[in-house]
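Long-time lurker, first post. I've been practising inverse folding by hand and with some scripts of my own, and I keep getting stuck on stretches where the structure tokens seem ambiguous. Below is the full token string for one chain I'm working on. Before anyone asks, I'm not after the true native sequence, just a reasonable design that respects the backbone. If someone could post their per-position residues I'd love to compare against what I wrote down in my notebook.
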């Protein structure tokens, strides 16, 4: 995996992340809608040989190119978590969609600098859509800057969550209160809907029980498109966040949604 030596360090990392996504897209599609061996992990979530093979390849490329960088992933043991640069990866975000033939799964790639998500990639192999976020720069959708809808109020907002099954009873009750105030609510999409929010098609996303590999890549993408993404207390997402995530198309919408969740 060749990286141009004259690029600024962060730009080199972005180029590497894109090259990594190119490879994972190809690998994911080689498994998609093919017979798979499905296992249940300790938390009862499914995992396939595709998840493990793709993450193994990702780790190999990261280690070969950046041997001092750390890696946190979903399927294999973490490495060098105390490194200044940490890659946080999810080979297939939306395994349930992937194994049931739904083309809404994706690969998530984040690079953190001293704990702060600096680069984020959402890549959707079946559709060829990709969002790339980099701190201080506009989010790119397939190479072109994109922006959220900028909607300001819940009454106009399209709200998504992946599944009501992912909420605990208290969280689901909060989500239901919020849902009563929006223009429309829909379910499904996994990481795809965060890309759709960055491109202005979805206005509000609320999830719980996520892990760092589920949300770290989303932060630069949403923020670079003009949106806001935090936990349910309005705090920045970190490696130690509780896993409750809210993303909104504007600061005003984010504030109104947080207020509704807290009631």
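-- Answer (accepted) --
I ran through it position by position. Result:
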């Amino acid at each position: 995996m060749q990286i141009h030596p004259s690029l600024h360090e962060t730009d080199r990392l972005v180029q590497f992340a894109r090259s990594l996504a190119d490879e994972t897209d190809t690998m994911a599609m080689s498994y998609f809608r093919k017979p798979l061996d499905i296992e249940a992990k300790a938390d009862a979530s499914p995992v396939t040989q595709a998840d493990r093979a793709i993450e193994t390849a990702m780790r190999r490329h990261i280690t070969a190119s950046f041997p001092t960088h750390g890696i946190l992933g979903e399927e294999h043991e973490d490495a060098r978590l105390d490194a200044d640069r940490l890659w946080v990866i999810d080979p297939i975000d939306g395994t349930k969609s992937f194994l049931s033939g739904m083309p809404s799964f994706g690969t998530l790639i984040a690079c953190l600098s001293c704990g702060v998500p600096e680069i984020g990639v959402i890549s959707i192999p079946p559709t060829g859509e990709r969002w790339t976020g980099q701190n201080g720069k506009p989010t790119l959708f397939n190479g072109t800057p994109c922006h959220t809808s900028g909607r300001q109020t819940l009454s106009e907002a399209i709200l998504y969550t992946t599944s009501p099954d992912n909420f605990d009873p208290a969280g689901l009750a909060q989500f239901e209160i919020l849902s009563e105030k929006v223009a429309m609510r829909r379910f499904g999409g996994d990481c795809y809907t965060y890309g759709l929010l960055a491109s202005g098609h979805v206005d509000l996303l609320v999830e719980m029980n996520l892990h760092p590999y589920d949300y770290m890549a989303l932060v630069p993408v949403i923020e670079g498109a003009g949106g806001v993404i935090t936990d349910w207390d309005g705090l920045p997402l970190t490696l130690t966040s509780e896993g409750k995530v809210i993303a909104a198309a504007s600061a005003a919408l984010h504030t109104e949604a947080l207020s509704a969740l807290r009631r």
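A couple of notes from the structure itself: The longest strand covers residues 85-93. The radius of gyration is 17 Å. Happy to go over any region you disagree with.
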